[in-house]
TrEMBL record:
This is V-type ATP synthase beta chain. GO terms for biological process: proton motive force-driven plasma membrane ATP synthesis. CDD domains: ATP-synt_V_A-type_beta_C, ATP-synt_V_A-type_beta_N, V_A-ATPase_B. It comes from Anaerococcus vaginalis ATCC 51170. Produces ATP from ADP in the presence of a proton gradient across the membrane. The V-type beta chain is a regulatory subunit.
Length: 463
């Protein structure tokens, strides 16, 4: 039997202290009734002897300490899951906001979840095509991987996120693919952009959207990614689907975490963020992966804006430790009109070698990836010397590398937000650009592959 308490003694920001309670569990869901009859929800985040600290989902305005009653519901925050969620849009607490009917759940799941046990993990080894050359060709995304995108203020990460959600696919047509999209603390205009883009392009038909707006309570930001991952876990591990989870913006999630930590009067860590920021982020990121004996997978692309474009800031810094690489967006490329402005040299996918090659993408993928990266790095260096010393001071090879870097940015990186390239298109474009470089400088590609792909046009003419 549920007990009702009228012993609220203090409210600070989004937190409420309830005294003289018994039998209350951590993460237990709470029902709060105000003096006006209005009901709000919360969850238990701390228990100290007979006192419980409750985190409010809808904010604390209008609460009268003496007249407010509190019920502890004996269960955690849950999400009702069903395949009918695909094509629907929800708020940060899992309530439909698309004017559609309520979901009839096949089951209810605790949104807090758990990180995947390392013993149960299967090694990621299968390619996911995003249609973006800078990812597919050079920083390949693999099923079960966590590959974050590090952006900055003013950069078009929302358009980039929408492009990936719209274009991503697995190459095996017999497998079901779904996108779970979590928008955390975004503006109304941004939410409208995502909704309209998903509806107009048909991406919504295979997506589950969770949208938390900037003017929604900060506490709801903390539940939004958990709701998304709970839905993803159901679709992947119960329904056998290949699920891509895109979460933007994780910086807003971390800010909400800092706000709650400050209200709890906890000792702050770096830049005022709580000392458990690493652990908290890991509980989200480590829910991605591939399980032994299960056909479905969860792949994550968390997106975050780096405060002051500082990659050493705690949020990108800790995210980089937990995840398997990073895609970094560049202000310099964006100012040149290059979109999506992916900075190639500092970007990295640590699992890319596991998802490419014959039978997965194409036999020449690994060699061309290494050669293009090396050529672009040489081209960037040559271009800097060109600016200082002029063309006359550079060798023919250096001039070729400088030209390669220019063409590479204009044609390979700058594909726009609405161009969807297959992996074949990406690899063929890479070979086309490598023709700029003298064949003697292609030292990272096997000669057989050079004969097969670089000289194929010449071979056709001769025959």
């Amino acid at each position: 039997m549920l007990k009702e308490y009228k012993s609220v003694s203090e409210v600070v920001g989004p937190l409420m202290l309830v005294e003289d309670v018994s039998g209350v569990d951590y993460e237990e869901l709470v029902d709060i009734e105000l003096q006006t009859g209005e009901r709000r929800r919360g969850r238990v985040i701390e228990i100290d002897e007979n006192n419980a600290v409750v985190q409010l989902f809808e904010g604390s305005s209008g609460i009268n300490l003496k007249s407010t009653s509190v019920r502890f519901l004996g269960r955690p925050l849950e999400l009702g899951v069903s395949e009918d969620m695909i094509g629907r849009t929800f708020d940060g607490l899992g309530r439909p906001i698309d004017d559609g009917p309520s979901i009839i759940p096949e089951e209810k799941r605790d949104v807090n979840g758990v990180a995947i046990n390392p013993v149960s993990r299967d090694y990621p080894s299968e390619f996911i095509q995003t249609g973006v050359s800078t990812i597919d060709g050079l920083n390949t995304l693999v099923r079960g991987q966590k590959l974050p995108i590090f952006s900055g203020s003013g950069l078009p990460h929302n358009k980039f996120a929408a492009q990936i959600a719209r274009q991503a696919k697995v190459l095996n047509d017999s497998e079901d693919f779904a996108v779970v999209f979590a928008a955390i603390g975004i503006t109304f205009e941004e939410a409208q952009f995502f909704r309209q883009d998903f509806e107009k392009t048909g991406a919504l038909d295979r997506s589950v959207m969770f949208i938390n707006l900037a003017d929604d309570p900060a506490i709801e930001r903390l539940s939004t990614p958990k709701m998304a991952l709970t839905a993803a876990e159901y679709l992947a591990f119960e329904k056998g689907m290949q699920v891509l989870v895109i979460m933007t913006d994780m910086t807003n999630y971390a800010e909400a975490l800092r706000e709650v930590s400050a209200a709890r009067k906890e000792v702050p860590g770096r830049r005022g963020y709580p000392g458990y920021l690493y652990t908290d982020l890991a509980t989200l990121y480590e829910r991605a992966g591939k399980l032994k004996g299960k056909p479905g997978t969860i792949t994550q692309i968390p997106i975050l804006t780096m405060p002051e474009n500082d990659i050493t800031h705690p949020i990108p810094d800790l995210t980089g430790y937990i995840t398997e690489g990073q895609i970094i967006l560049s202000n310099e490329l964006y100012n040149q009109g290059v979109n999506p402005p992916v900075s190639i040299l500092p970007s990295l996918s640590r699992l890319k070698d596991k998802g490419i090659g014959e039978g997965k993408t194409r036999e020449d993928h690994a060699d061309t990836m290494n050669q293009i990266y090396a050529a672009y790095a040489s081209g960037v260096d040559a271009r800097e010397l060109q600016k200082i010393l002029g063309d006359s001071a550079l060798s023919k090879a250096d001039l070729a590398f400088a030209e390669f870097a220019k063409q590479f940015e204009e044609k390979y990186i700058n594909q726009g937000f609405y161009t969807n390239r297959s992996i074949e298109d990406t690899l063929n474009l890479g070979w086309e650009l490598l023709k700029i470089i003298p064949k003697s400088e292609l030292k990272r590609i096997d000669d057989e592959l050079i004969d097969k792909y670089l000289d194929k046009d010449e071979n056709k003419k001769e025959s």
